[in-house]
């Protein structure tokens, strides 16, 4: 069976600097993978290049989602194709209410997928149910998107977006950063609730902590722009003890 | 009758004086400090064919007015009051020519180009008295039907003590429109004033708004400009007594070769008065935007609070924004602040929205709408505020999608 997400020999440069240097990764539907790595290893570059941000140039290799190349696709079409990136630093957008944003987003994706748009009343019910599960109250739906939200609220709001967009492939970029333990648990519950046999997830993190709550099937270590080790969840625990020092030299050597 | 004819001669002599001044001075040029960024002498004809055009048919104004069904509608076509609906109780309209003292009071400064040029060419002058709390909005719509039409109107509003009104002023069409609105607000009166400027791209609008506030009088102005050719939206407020307040909020969307100038002058004569001014300007193509905001706090005007903020969003590298904030403060116990920012679309925010499936154009429109949302939000307290916000949001969206 072919993989849901297939990253093949991916080389990515930002300006003159090559950040990813031949990264290979294959995620099947139903699997949760974790990528761990030290600062500067290329974690954020990987998440941005997957989502299609400007300025990240693929110089070699390819990214396939359900067998279709994302390399030349713009960010909105990737979302329609089923990709979702939960941002490490969600943006604040003054003057646009969370609800307006969510509705525009969901309907844009539904249109793109050839589905009917949701009317205002059914969308309201739909989003309220999802928000409740993440302990986001109605007030936060009425406020401008992420403006004045705490770190935890922003991250829960990212998960809310994920749950209304129902992606087939979700990437979580350092979703644990800036969260206290209670917020972390709520976020992890929200993510875990979305695990199912049709969906793949890639959890990108510096620390093992998040993986106590979102248990991955497979753990990879990213260093120097390549996956240098792949293993079972125990690999994350090992790292927690011994740190990244063993891996930092590996690619250079 | 005798009084009337003596007034007519007074009016005629004042108008003749204005004509003489206009003939000698003409339009201001950039050596005039108030007109430095908007040189009218270089942009406007030295004289006008001042015959209102005959209308052969009804002018369709749907989608040009503010679109509030229950508003009382006054319509000026080519400078002439063409249509007056039944007026609600507490609202009366009279000809300016019946009020000699008001013309004198209104034309107190014949060195002011906007005043002498208006009086020299004046076609219609009316006085609107508001004596009660009026629930229905009053809409005054101005429309010129042709490029060669120039219309000159003076309106004097008098709000009695405790009176309140939502005034919707809208402008559309071609040619040249010059309006002087003098607003006198007695104590405890409230005027909510929306000014919607949605004209063709060759149109000229010179709109002067002068507001005089007594104790506890509140004036709330929201101005929204969607295109037009050359525009000067000028508002001057005088705070005569404690407790008076003015809020001026402007949202400008300009493109093409439009030149739009927002000038405000807040004159705090009295202590314990407050004002807040906020302008959001969006410039595309080769448009030029100007914000000149002046706050004057007189020596005895202690405990004045005045804030002023101008932000501009540049959608094109060919567009230009000029900002001139001025504070003149002669009292020592005041809280005054001004700030301005000029920036581009936030590319990170754009990527964020696109990553959620929202197409690039729609994402840009969303960010631009977000930039002026606070201004439209101020219509909350207006009569028919929800309808106004909905209508204006749609117009803004249509405008942005057309120009995207």
Automatic annotation (TrEMBL), chain A:
Keywords: ATP-binding, Nucleotide-binding. PANTHER family: ABC TRANSPORTER I FAMILY MEMBER 6, CHLOROPLASTIC. PROSITE patterns: ABC_TRANSPORTER_1, ABC_TRANSPORTER_2. It holds the Pfam family ABC_tran. GO terms for molecular function: ATP binding; ATP hydrolysis activity. Residues 5-249 form the ABC transporter domain. This is FeS assembly ATPase SufC. The keyword Transport does not apply. The keyword Coiled coil does not apply.
From TrEMBL, chain B:
Residues 144-371 form the SUF system FeS cluster assembly SufBD core domain. It holds the Pfam family SufBD_N. GO terms for biological process: iron-sulfur cluster assembly. Residues 9-103 form the SUF system FeS cluster assembly SufBD N-terminal domain. Belongs to the iron-sulfur cluster assembly SufBD family. This is Fe-S cluster assembly protein SufD.
């Amino acid at each position: 069976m072919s993989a849901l997400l297939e990253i093949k020999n991916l080389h990515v440069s930002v300006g003159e600097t090559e950040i990813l240097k031949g990264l290979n990764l294959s995620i099947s539907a139903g699997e949760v993978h974790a990528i761990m790595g030290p600062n500067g290893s290329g974690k954020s570059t990987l998440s941005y290049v997957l989502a299609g941000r400007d300025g990240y140039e693929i110089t070699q290799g390819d990214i396939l989602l359900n067998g279709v190349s994302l390399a030349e696709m713009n960010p909105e079409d990737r979302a329609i194709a089923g990709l979702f990136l939960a941002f490490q630093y969600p943006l604040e957008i003054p003057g646009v209410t969370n609800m307006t944003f969510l509705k525009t987003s969901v309907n844009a994706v539904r249109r793109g997928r050839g589905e009917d748009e949701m009317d205002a009343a059914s969308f309201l019910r739909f989003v309220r149910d999802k928000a409740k599960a993440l302990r986001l109250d109605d007030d936060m739906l009425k406020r401008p998107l992420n403006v004045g939200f705490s770190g935890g609220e922003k991250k829960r709001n990212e998960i809310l977006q994920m749950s209304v967009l129902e992606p087939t492939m979700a990437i979580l970029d350092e979703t644990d950063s800036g969260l206290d333990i209670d917020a972390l648990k709520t976020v992890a519950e929200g993510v875990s609730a979305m695990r199912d046999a049709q969906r793949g997830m890639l959890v990108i993190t510096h620390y093992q902590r998040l993986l106590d709550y979102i248990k991955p099937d497979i753990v990879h270590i990213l260093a120097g722009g390549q996956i240098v080790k792949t293993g079972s969840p125990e690999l994350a625990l090992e790292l927690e003890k011994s740190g990244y020092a063993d891996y930092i030299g590996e690619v250079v050597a | 009758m005798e009084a009337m004819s003596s007034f007519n001669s007074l009016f005629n002599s004042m108008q003749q004086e204005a004509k003489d001044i206009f003939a000698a001075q003409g339009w201001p040029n950039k050596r005039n400090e108030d007109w430095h960024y908007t040189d009218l002498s270089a942009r406007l004809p030295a004289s006008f064919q001042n015959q209102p055009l005959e209308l052969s048919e009804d002018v369709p104004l749907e989608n040009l007015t503010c679109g509030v069904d229950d508003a009382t509608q006054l319509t000026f076509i080519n400078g002439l009051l063409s249509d007056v609906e039944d007026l609600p109780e507490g609202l009366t309209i009279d000809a300016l020519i019946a009020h000699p003292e008001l013309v004198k009071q209104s034309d107190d400064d014949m060195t002011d180009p906007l005043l002498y040029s208006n009086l020299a060419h004046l076609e219609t002058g009316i006085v609107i008295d508001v004596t009660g709390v009026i629930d229905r909005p009053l809409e005054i719509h101005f429309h010129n039907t042709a490029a060669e039409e120039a219309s000159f109107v003076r309106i004097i509003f008098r709000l009695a003590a405790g009176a309140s009104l939502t005034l919707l002023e809208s402008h559309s069409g071609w040619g040249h429109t010059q309006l002087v609105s003098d607003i006198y607000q007695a104590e405890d009166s409230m005027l909510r004033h929306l000014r919607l400027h949605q004209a063709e791209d060759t149109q000229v609008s010179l709109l002067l708004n002068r507001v005089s506030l007594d104790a506890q009088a509140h004036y709330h102005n929201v101005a929204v400009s969607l295109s037009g050719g050359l525009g000067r939206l000028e508002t001057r407020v005088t705070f005569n007594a404690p407790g008076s307040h003015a809020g001026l909020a402007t949202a400008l969307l300009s493109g093409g070769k439009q030149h739009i100038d927002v000038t405000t002058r807040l004159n705090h004569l009295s202590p314990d008065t407050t004002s807040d001014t906020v302008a959001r300007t969006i410039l595309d193509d080769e448009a030029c935007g100007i914000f000149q905001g002046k706050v004057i706090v007189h020596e005895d005007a202690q405990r004045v609070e005045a804030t002023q903020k101008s932000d501009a969003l540049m959608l094109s590298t060919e567009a230009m924004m000029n900002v001139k904030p001025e504070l003149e403060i002669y009292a020592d116990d005041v809280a005054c602040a001004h700030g301005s920012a000029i920036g581009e679309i936030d590319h990170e925010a754009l990527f964020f929205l696109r990553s959620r499936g929202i197409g690039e154009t729609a994402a840009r429109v969303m960010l631009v709408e977000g930039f002026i949302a606070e201004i439209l939000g101020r219509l909350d307290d207006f009569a028919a505020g929800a309808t106004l916000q909905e209508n204006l949001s749609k117009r803004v969206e249509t405008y942005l999608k057309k120009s995207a």
